[in-house]
Protein 1
Amino acid sequence: MNKVSREPRPFLDFIGTVWAMRRAKIGVVITGLICVTAAVGPHLAPFTATEFVDMPNSLHISGALFGTDYMGQDVWSRFLMGGGSILFLGAVSTAIGVLGGAMLGVVAAYVKGSLNSIIMRTFDIVIAFPGILWALLLLSMMGTSNWLIILAIVISTVPRVGRIIYGAAVAVVEKDFVSAATAIGESRMRIVFREVLPNVTSTLLVETNLRFTYSIGGIASLAFLGFTSDPTGANWGTMVQENSSAIILQPWGTILPVFAIALLTIGTGLIGDAFSRVSAGIDRGRND
Amino acid sequence: MRILKFVLRRLAFGLGALIAISAAIFLVTQGLPADPAKTILGRDATPESLAALRSVLHLDRSLFSQYWEWLTNVARGNFGTSFTTQMPISSYLGERFSNSLFLMIVSSAISIPFALLLGGYMALRRDSLFDSAGSFTSLVFAAMPEFVMGTGLIVVFATTVFHWFPAVVYLEEDASAWSDPKGVILPIATLVMGCIPYVSRTMRASMIEVLESDYIEMARLKGVSERKVLLRHAFPNALGPVFQVSALNIAYVVGGAVIVERLFNFPGVGSALTEAIRSRDLPVIQFLSLLIGSVYVITNLVADVATVLVTPRLRTTLP
Amino acid sequence: MTSGLRIKNLRLNVEGSGEDIVDEINLTIEPGKVLALVGESGSGKTTVGLAVLGHARRGVVVVHGEIHCGEREILSLDDENKRKVRGDLVSYVPQDPASSLNPALRIGVQLVETLEAHDFGGSDSARRDRVREMMSEVLLPTDEDYLRRYPHQLSGGQQQRVGLAMAFACRPSVIVLDEPTTGLDVSTQEHVLATIRQLTREHGVAALYITHDLAVVADLADEVAVMYAGRVVERGLVKDIFMRPSHPYTRHLVDAAPDIAGKKKVIGLSGRAPAPGKRPSGCAFALRCEMVSDECLSTFPVEVVVNDSQKARCIKVGKVVRSIFTASDEASTRVQGSPILDLRGVDAGYAGVKVVHDVSLTIRKGECLALVGESGSGKTTVSRAIGGLHREWSGSMNFKGVELAKGSRQRSTENRLAIQYVFQNPYGSLNPRRTIGDSIIRPLAIGGQSKSEAKRAVFEVLDQVNLPAAYATKFPDQLSGGERQRVAIARALVSKPEVLVCDEVTSALDVLVQAAIIDLLDDLRKNLGLAMLFVTHNLPLVRSIADEVAVMSEGRIVEFGSAESVIGDPQQEYTRSLISATPSIERSMR
């Protein structure tokens, strides 16, 4: 129970407990596999993404194990190259979105008054309309550069993370140690950063992971709909859309990318689930 | 009586949210650099025709007055005319809306009761094989984006493994969705598989919390039969949080099912909006956005009111 | 004996391990009698109580034992028969009435439910009559409108009475009450105890009353069993246990219990009871016992018979001496300290609603003023206003000649540090993500002190609260409740305050720990010349720490004076009724 002998490091203990769960290990392995494929893939691809190899939508081609796609390009090569941008955009948009949402959520919880209302009402309004539609509006009006795609995902992420962190932060703000900090004259900023924020980290970890899963899904979905910064380049999302009409002739063009996206989101989902179970256990145990 | 005041207040807030959303949509579509007139007439349009079109469409007025005009029209029931088809919007979008409504009703009717029972049972048999397997499956389905799930279903049931269903929905112009029952099965299945994980997970967590509570222990210690403990004490108290999640899922189908509609070629509101966005048909964009926003607002309102009605503590302490 | 309650050789383990939670439990209760099961938190008393109903919480298993309620043995019953017995033959009154009632069902429905589950009365109308009968027995209204209420529409005392009604509904032979008056006001507690006494005697019910409050035990119980670390270490008649305790732990408990009529000084005991799994093979109390010898550490003592009814598990039975502190163990020739904080005509409220009216107090240097009252009296609001945590007040607060600003942020640094506040809940007043040292050092760091000087101050203050310097690098969840409260006090002391506001600082602590903290506060007050405001609802505690007392009710000060005169010779009706409703060991022994 209470390890009186050594000095505990709460964060590392948390990670250790998470790692001990089987689903976390499976999730890490799966996610790692896909990430490695996406990162290393481009260097292993036998052909380039746009190189014409043989007749479109044909199988049984020597040198191309999974056949050609709708433009005669090598499915296997495009598959190996198709994950990088999704992962990169997913990571960046998650990082920005979670950071922004967490800051706003914590500030709203601590400050109360009109700032709180403004922040929370804005969240409600953004969430009241499907995220994908905000993204479609933005991207079709303003273009599909990488930064705009990131912005579209961030718009979806910030209010949702903000709401969750707000809920967690409100519980912390009620606690006596925050009042104690106010009583000794701590500045508001310090209280937000040193008292409140560190006590919502377990929620934050869970949300980060969840949002990463959704960001990847969202970016792939947008690519599927044709909203990507490089329309001809290799991208798992666009591949699904491009090759789905020929699925009866050439299933691999669709199956490989679908499989990859599924595995990636499942992997991150498993890790996130492990996080949430451990943090729920910790939070429950702390209620003495 | 207090409930009525509560409903009215939430309604007022919902209306406010709708206005804010429509204003935001207006801003995004017309306040941005892209010129709708140019998009409609194409790049080769002459400056004179562009100017003429702009004045016809009132695009030369200030943003605020355009918005105000639109808002007052909507309040009067005049939803505008589509740029592309030149027809009044309300007439030809009715079919799309009823199709989406059909999807919404059928998929919700299937998924929500099933998810409630599933989640409740998983909580009862907590940590059993059923629970672990169920949680894992639920996780898998929740994490995957819809187009992945939909494509997977197509691959398995339509094209590659089995050939039971068509891969897309073949509907003629103005035909309604239920005239092709076989075709709508896969889209509905995709939506159902996307909805069940969330609702069942929320129900499971809520049920577990209830089952751990003091009053459940007390009911058992009074000698109440296990069946009564579950049906009368546990289940009703676990439903509270479920309303919100259900509302979100229900509302999603109407507008957020853009991906599913595209994948299966389903003629619903989501794909209508996508098309309108592509062709810069501003009145249609604005109208459909309002419609989708209204669906969200109404379902959230119903969920909030239901939550209050079902929780006596909230019901009796309404301000 | 074929009635009453008999527990034989009961043992429960932690599921999945061989560790015992409770063991060798042997108790007998005759019909109509009340046996108090006393112990601190973690002693296993709730586990025993639930076992009497054949129930064990998650992670707990019955290893062996027999429990006879009347003629039936409970532990060997199958699930369906256990269900039949619960509420009918043996029933349970839980600790927290608010959370034990289904918030979504009307109380009438929940009352009838017990009767329906056991088919009491045979018909719906007979059951309705019985419900009305039950409600009048516990002095609650019997009309339809009241029965249609939801639990949250009842007060805490009313909820507890509903719980009692449900427990007595099917006329059980045995009843287990688990700390049923915790959290209730003293006046409500008096009524509830009277109801329990009356119902058990009238219906010949054997009652097992679980509690940590010795004064209640003295008032209500016929016999006592004391539990420590999962074993019953002493049992016997109430008078014997209190006047001639045989086990050292019992003696410490009696010495630590505050008493409104008897002695003044409370004596604490440091250390903690070993948790399940960490219990030694010898006597579990040995390491804290002043009479410990090698023999004690090797084998667990068996029960020694002291007299007809008294048994204790100690090899040194007969050598325990009860320390009796009567009044005036302290010289009453005290020079009254000079006033340091003066309140005049203070009103305070929440969101425009006034809850404190026209309060005037004087706190003197080197003295402790106790602010007592029941819940809702406004005492916490006043103390928070003084501490700068509550800003909605008006009136005058004069500190050393200067008017205090309303919030702590608005006060000068000097004033902010001079008045320090210690919170009630030791589990919420320390940031779980910071080490103890970090939490304590903050006021100094803000004040701009050099790091080395601040560090020295931290060690100095840890020493003052009797905590080892090594604790500075620990995290709060490694400490016990009492230790955390000491840290909270240390944090308040580090800025060298002149006024210390203690808001119910011992309410969440066990009685031995509470006594140690009271001791500490008293010493600090004397050594550092602190002016102390001690807020509490625990009237008996006041005698052990306060020089002066102010009694509050409904936002006003009802009576004020020296501790001796207010408690010993109260002038106001409210004070008098409060004191007479407070159970006292001394009074019950006469």
Note: The two ends of chain B are 11 Å apart (CA to CA).
Protein 2
Amino acid sequence: MLYDVIIIGAGVSGSAVAREVSRYDISACVLEKCEDVCEGTSKANSAIVHAGFDAAEGSLMAKLNVEGNEMMDKLARDLDFPFRRNGSLVVMFEGDDRSKLEELLERGRKNGARDLRIIEKEELHSMEPNIADDAVAALYAPTAGIVCPFNMTIAFAENAFANGVEFRLNTEVKAITASKEGYVIEAEKHEAFTGPETVRIETKAILNAAGAYSDVIHNMVSARTHHIKPRRGCYFLLDKTAGSFVEKTIFTLPNEMGKGILTAPTVHGNLLVGPDAKDIDNRDGVNTTAEELELVRASANRNLKNPPLRSVITSFAGVRAHEDSGDFIIEECPDAEFFFECAGIESPGLSASPAIGKMIAGIIADRFGAVRKNEYIETRKGVLNPASLSDEERSELIRKNPAYGNIICRCEMVTEGEIIDAVTRPLGARSLDGVKRRTRAGMGRCQAGFCSPRTMEIISRECGIPLYHVTKSGGASALIPNETLNDKYVIG
Amino acid sequence: MSEKISLTCIGCPLGCTVNVVKSGNTIESISGNTCKRGYDYAQTEVLAPVRTVTSTVRVNGGRNPVVAVKTEAPIPKGKIKDCMKAIYNIKVNAPVAIGDVICDNIADTGVRLVASAND
Amino acid sequence: MYDKRDIIIIGGGPAGIAAAVSAYDRFREAGIAKPSILVIERDKVLGGILNQCIHNGFGLHTFKEELTGPEYAGRFIDKLKERNIEYMLETMVMSITPDRKVTAMNRERGLFTIEAKAIVLAMGCRERARGALNIPGYRPAGIYSAGTAQRLVNIEGFMPGREVVILGSGDIGLIMARRMTLEGARVKVVAELMPYSGGLKRNIVQCLNDFDIPLKLSHTVVDIKGRERVESVTIAEVDDKLRPIPGTEEEYTCDTLLLSCGLIPENELSNGAGIGMNPVTNGPFVNESMETDVPGIFACGNVLHVHDLVDYVSEEAGNAGLHAAMYCLGQISSGSANEKVINVKTANSVRYTVPSVIRPDQMGDELTVRFRVGNVYKNCYIDVYLDDECIIHRKRPVVAPGEMENIVLKKEQLTGRKIENVRVELDINE
């Protein structure tokens, strides 16, 4: 089969592009090296929808951030993912340079971010009583928001899937060669518990959305090399008891490494603190380090009054795909026809993703002279959250499907019904982490201590795989490695 | 030829280091203990140490794939491995109740292996 | 309009069952033929965590013999069933209110609310997870809390790994070191952050020494390698402020890291009802009747404070159940403002006491006050003062944070005169 376009990478960019491409009469397939969508940078970031004042005027980052921000309300409704405009504050403290705050305000206005204003000490402290006492002013951006990056990415992917886009997971691109029709991709398929298998995929066009690997993919076809510098950031996630410590997203004045260490509530009611910024060599270097976590801790202690860091329930790290040019690269590759780029997507990539998808899908459609399909499914329903129902509705749901009466994750109160939904829906979860991202089972304060054996049983039953083939996140992440089973425990 | 053995007493949280000198099966001296319990413990532990072994055996048709078992009495410490090897190979059928005899004489110790849970 | 019960007990582990049994017996003594008691349990079976604690050593105080966890639980479950006390399995309590409405959910009944005259909290505790310990490194498969691994091995019949490093030398960690070894795993080291082990001496000897497993005190995990599955764990020595000492790192190749780093009472329901919490125990403040600061809501077992021996859980829970029944029967009063109250204070390394307030008029002839200390001390005294008068001066050859201590107060000591405070402290200047 010859595809019109192969999208490499099922992060938020690749998934957003897939959804936008699926509006057109274009055959598309997404290749993802991991076992699930939303596995790279898209799953480990600040979960922020930025207002749009950070990026340089005239940059793609600035334009697409503001556009993406404005698209977010309708998208969240259409695609059923959590999003809330909680507003953000860039706080300056005694001794900081006030002109930098004014610069941000000015830039934001030029970028088109709405309703920005500088607020003074009194208003700031009444807005956010837990900010450190020496905070003197802040840039207030009411349009900034918070989002669930997992559900947003999964929603894009599921909606793209519903509109005919194929997804091949566990499929890692190894080489790309130009061909008469376009390109031939050589990929390695590595399903857990089976040996790797080489597959050839033919396509007319390629969209590179490979995140921290986008330079590697690009350099397979282009002589004008890209260079991604992986930039790691470590975070603390705090218990829901700390979730209302701040209401708005609290930034400090930015520096050359990024927007500084922020504190923000999450859409699920936790508190997030981070990230630091450390340039590293390993694109998969998502390990936290003691030094970096200490930086994050020190920053929180500097900017906030007695931040409740005792309530940390987990720490994690993400790698931003910082491209040397410093801006998003969204174009058809100048020296490789029908090879489209969606590269260097670091912050504000999550905020911009809807606009990125629209822009690049437009470029691709123009190039193909493609027309919009008549039948297009605009909306998608997420995994039903019974907690959003009234008591009567919830009881009715349990009468119809008793699995919704069985709590599996007691910290987040996730039921068996939700987990079954997450596993059995199209592009469903196959691993503990996949279930966690879709339902929050295991994301609470005990961090899956109680529920993981029970979630494993459900995955095993619903997917028809043995318990010891259930993984944490695909690949070699078996929870009960087959080779370590005692003979007596190998169930025939 | 006397042999010196150093033990940690398990009688209480103090955890005295008790030094025993023995020759063959005769104890020549015990020192370092601060109470009678330490003396008795050292004597048994040096001459004939015993342990209760607790584990699980596979169960067919039960609620769970395995059911807990224990040696009804402590067995010689040196027999723990043999006991486990024997346990690996045992399969029982549900129902199993606490106290059911799983094996009459586990690893030739003369001790019975009994179920310690219901399934 | 709501279903009603006299007492609802939340949790069907050792605490909940013991509370139910003693409440039942008190109702019967009061001439009530069919006491109205309901135990709500979230698991498929009664017995709680004891079901997975298949090692022996339970019940020496209660039954004067050494039982395994399921056997100990079995004896109490028998008592519950002999009395025909009502219980619901696979039922999750979603919320409780200060006026004692319990909302729960299960497959059969959906979401439902029952109103109680008294509630006994017996939800137990959870294990401290990796995130709360701030261990840096990757987040691969193969990192389990010791209790999760215990469940996998002893209930589900699966081995979570073959080459194991254990952080934390509490009893669960030690027990799992032996259990994994017996099932053919290689436990390479047990690291303990503190300069002493939190576990029983007996477990150090029989779970570690018996199998030549090294115990490294004053050590912690400083790195976890492996992106998909654990590939190695690095431990390092810590200084007296518990900070890792650079240059002392040792890397252990392994596929599994077990964490046994403390237990946290599960008080989310209690918090929802606005019950006052002791920040030291993470459990509710209770009075001599095991009653929280919300009238008619009692607490016992590991949700109140983490215990070392289940025997003490049963005893304390029996006391809570008894008083819950007495509360329903109008045999004890509840928190009137002009009632005489003695505060129990702590000093000199005594971290907390349970109870923390005593109403002498409401107490029985004797009251056991349980507490824990903050460090290991040898040849010290436990002192109890009534205001400035020392009434107990008891020698202890050793006290340790891992072992719960207790003192017994007599009613005659606390009545007939004005006492502001009882103070429990350690005299360590010997």
Note: Residues 310-328 of chain C form the longest helix (19 residues).
